[in-house]
Amino acid sequence: MTVDRAVQQTPSPEELLSRARDLIPVFRSHAERTESERDVVAPNMRALRESGLLRLTLPERFGGHPVDVRGQVEVLSEIGRGCASTGWIAANHAASTDFALLLPEEGLREVFGENPDAVLLSAASPHGCRAQRVADGLVINGRFPYASGCRVSDWALLAAVPLIEDGAEVGAVDALVRPEEMEIEDTWHMAGLAGTGTHAMTAVDLFVPERRALVPARREDGRYDELLSPTVLVKGNLHSLSALVGAARGVWDEVRRALDKGRQIAYSTYDNAADSPAVRLWFAEATHLLETATLHLRAAADGLDRAGGQELERAERARLRMHSASALECSRRGTQRLLDIAGTSAFAKSNPIQRYWRDLETGSRHAMLNHPVIVEDYSRSLFGLDGVSPWH
Q1: Are 122 and 96 in contact (CB under 8 A)?
Q2: Mean pLDDT across the stretch 201-213?
Q3: CATH superfamily, with its number, for domain 3-112
Q4: Looking at residue 146, what is its pLDDT?
Q5: Assigned fold of 230-382
Q6: Alpha helices, DSSP H only, in the chain?
Q7: What single DSSP character describes residue 377?
Q8: Which terminus of the chain has fewer CB atoms gathered within 10 Å of its CB, N or C?
Q9: Burial of 284 (C-beta count, 10 Å sphere; 0-12/13-18/19+)
Q10: Could you give the CA distance from residue 90 to residue 195 in angstroms, rounded to a whole number?
Q11: What is the Cα–Cα distance from 117 to 338, expressed in whole angstroms?
């Protein structure tokens, strides 16, 4: 597939999904190197660009191939099925593009006008960052500890940076900057999703022109008009979840391949594991769990599609996040069953199963995918209680 084909044609959602599936072997072939280099390697990034899969949330006026949320999560899941780290970066980019569309049109033209396949990341910092007004823009200082893909991205969206005036916080800003304008610390040494290169970035007196900044007013309730809404954030988290659901399906692919080859069960009379009724039952259970995960993923996506871009009530957001939590839980349970079938050999460093497993287990602990807190928030919403996070 060439760049010209991706740019000149407007692909259907089915075509985009087909392209993602066709690229699974490519992503999979570079997964080990992506992990060892701790960044998505150039062949995978090139495949994402040439296929048009970086344009899922980009408006058509910039050459985008926008599809509905269900189409987005299905494509991102297929990318994660090939390589979870590559899927995570593609998901982060899709969400970050969505977030960035709130910024001034002039700034968006600077980012996407000449390069519709520009790669974006988004990063926030819970403490210590600050923005101050200067002539024609802002100056930002602070450390952003988790910036996925900062060494392979073209732009970084610094989200919800406190705006300080006369020593007091008077607002918050979003700003688009070049990652190379920031100091990148090599901090991401992880057991899973190592290939996402989620290093720390620090801004030191970083100037951001007005055209690449969003400075809304602070409301009486403490929120900010036009910044990331809770519903948009739910959608962004669903993007990340999609890559993890895909990783679980990657485990299924590898276990099925081993079963089809006629793997023996040690210390048993079975020369072919698939001849065992117990193995077949467990494989069926694992398959059903992964199918259930996909159903929950689609249910959350469909809820966002029904909203049509409008802000959802808190109870509905909590319900959709509960679907996300269930998708993740089913993915993990199904993967555990598959690991039991695969046996000790699945944990050999040469076996891709163990990488998928580590990626899933690490990514599923992301703060915004936190299962216990999501369940707590859903239970509170059912009884009309306030959420446990301002984003929920």
Answers
A1: yes
A2: 97
A3: Acyl-CoA dehydrogenase/oxidase, N-terminal domain (1.10.540.10)
A4: 96
A5: Butyryl-CoA Dehydrogenase, subunit A; domain 3 (1.20.140)
A6: 3-8, 13-22, 24-29, 31-37, 42-51, 69-82, 84-100, 105-112, 230-260, 277-307, 314-342, 352-363, 371-382
A7: H
A8: N
A9: exposed
A10: 12
A11: 36
